[in-house]
Design a protein that fits this description.
Length: about 325
């Protein structure tokens, strides 16, 4: 075969191989990896088509807390947005030394596959009260967008205690009485170092985050409003993240038996509700104890409102 004919034959084989690969990629909808690529028009006049693969990326947004403030409902509802990819479990990368020591590459592997234009979100409520998490997050990405959902602090504290109570019950450990742990040694003064209560001293933890991030990068969600009317809060978050408003009201389904909203991706799809541990009855706490807590938490709440430049109905 003449040399020029051989070269032409090789060239045609290469072109046909490329076309075959393109066809396989474009029409393999039924394959498990069919959603792992996108096709884009070229950005320059001489570009025709280029491919982008999904990959594990660092988050652009973190839900840092507050624990028992509605973080699970928040991340599940945000996951309804087609441009948001949310991690399904708490990674605890920034608050634990053992996981942080595994490095950034390990962290990325814990996060969902996404395209560059999508927003990856990770939720770990333990980040908010952590002393070391804000600096670690800042060192990874000083432009990180942060979501913080806050709930009325007395109710949130009781909810936190309730979870601790049931955790101890499952482990067959001694079960504390609320009044015995929430007050200092039989007095009426709050035991502010008791973890479920300390998690409600929002202003203390927020100040630590503001050492590294401006308030413009921290969006505070009203957890009490979100629980009853989630859509306005979700619209504000979409705007904060620079995303189009694409979470639909029909995707938020009120469950009168559970007393909170459940979610579905579209009409006709199954409705997903939070687990049985969400929305369960709190441990009984007397009105007198609640009032003592409310009064002693007022100074913390007032400082928080001043810091945020807004008030909540607490």
């Amino acid at each position: 075969m003449p040399r020029c004919a051989l070269h032409l034959f090789i060239y045609l084989c290469v072109v046909l191989s490329i076309l075959a690969l393109v066809q396989i990629s474009l029409f393999s909808y039924g394959s498990p990896d069919a959603d792992r690529y996108e096709v884009h028009d070229g950005e320059k006049p001489n570009d025709s088509v280029h491919f982008e693969l999904k990959k594990h990326r660092l988050p652009k947004c973190l839900i840092i807390g507050a624990r028992k403030g509605g973080t699970r409902a928040l991340v599940d509802s945000l996951a309804l947005h087609p441009m948001i990819k949310a991690a399904r479990r708490e990674v605890h990368f920034f608050d634990r030394n053992d996981t942080f020591a595994r490095g950034i590459d390990w962290y990325k592997e814990q996060l969902p596959l996404s395209f560059a234009h999508e927003v990856t979100i990770e939720k770990t409520p333990a980040y908010f009260p952590s002393l070391i998490a804000p600096r670690r997050v800042y060192e990874m990405d000083p432009k990180m967008k942060i979501l913080l959902i806050l709930r009325e602090p007395v109710v949130r504290t009781i909810s936190d205690f309730t979870q601790v109570y049931y955790n101890r019950l499952e482990l067959d450990k001694s079960l504390p009485q609320f009044e015995d742990v929430i007050f200092q040694n039989g007095t009426n003064r709050l035991a502010t170092n008791y973890k479920p209560l300390r998690n409600s001293l929002y202003v203390i933890h927020l100040r630590n985050w503001l050492k590294y991030f401006p308030l413009s990068q921290i969006h505070v969600v009203d957890g009490d409003k979100f629980a009853m009317e989630p859509l306005p809060e979700l619209r504000a978050i979409e705007k904060f993240l620079g995303l189009p408003s694409q979470i639909e009201a029909a995707s938020l389904v009120w469950d009168p038996h559970k007393g909170f909203f459940c979610f579905r991706r579209s009409l006709g799809r199954a409705v997903h509700c939070l687990g049985d541990s969400k929305g369960r009855a709190h441990r009984p706490v007397s009105p007198a104890t609640r009032e003592k807590m409310r009064i002693q938490l007022l100074p913390y709440n007032s400082k928080l409102f001043e810091l945020l430049g807004r008030r909540f109905r607490w």
